[in-house]
Amino acid sequence: MAHFNGSIKSDALGMRTNLTIITPADILNAPEHGKVVYLLHGLSDDAFAWEQNAQLPQLADTYNLTFILPEVQRSFYTDMAYGLKYFTYVAEELPQICKRLFCISGRREDTYVMGLSMGGYGALKCALKKPEQYAGCGAFSALTDIYQLPERAEIEEPSRLREIQAAFGMEHELFPENDLYRLAKECETKPVKPKIFMACGTEDFIYQHSVKFRDFITPMDFDFTYKEWSGVHEWYLWNKALHLACAHFFPETPNNPYCNIK
Q1: Rounded to an integer, what distance in angstroms lies between the CA atom of residue 245 and that of residue 262?
Q2: pTM for the whole structure
Q3: I need a surface site. Which of 38, 47, 107, 138 has the fewest CB within 10 A?
Q4: Residue 261 lies inside a defined structural domain of this protein
Q5: Has residue 262 been placed in a domain?
Q6: CB 84 within 8 A of CB 75
């Protein structure tokens, strides 16, 4: 694979920030306009987590994908009430930076966003807020109901309430504009909509988030696919989910060794 680990200057964030890029190994002979996947990390991870725990080189080669792994700290992929503009960075500035630096495709039909846990929430938010930008979205063990965050934080770890307030406001006043259910209703009326693939383990502590969102969006006018199997909140499940999502979104890939994965 071609592999970049480094940092870039972000005007939206007002600082340098870590970035990982993984491309097919034979980049010079890869077909032009390969697909691009923005791959988003979870709450306790960083820009290197997917690279360290998933089979990105194999997937990049098999599907002619470029994976872009940004870092957003514990921001919930939000333009924070008391912090930095991480949604603006990921959904608006980063694609422009990457197109200039790495000559990737900027076409909607080539652009996907995927993520796990907090990153699954971020992927859904990007795709539902900007359906004209993303052809598809993969969300694995995704946080989908942000209104449960304060209650869960108070029960499990009261100090986490401060970071939720930093992201969404002291009175959680930014919840409505970052609510996936509201965004899905708004997106349903738009002329183009992203394809959505969700997966979750049935023993995952966040499983009910996936089930609730699945039941909400299934009757709506979306191309929606949902998978579940026995598993918890861990990398074995997310690696399999990423394989399944790639096989789902890119079925035309010749000689795909993952096409029969269940």
Answers
A1: 11
A2: 0.94
A3: 107
A4: no
A5: no
A6: yes
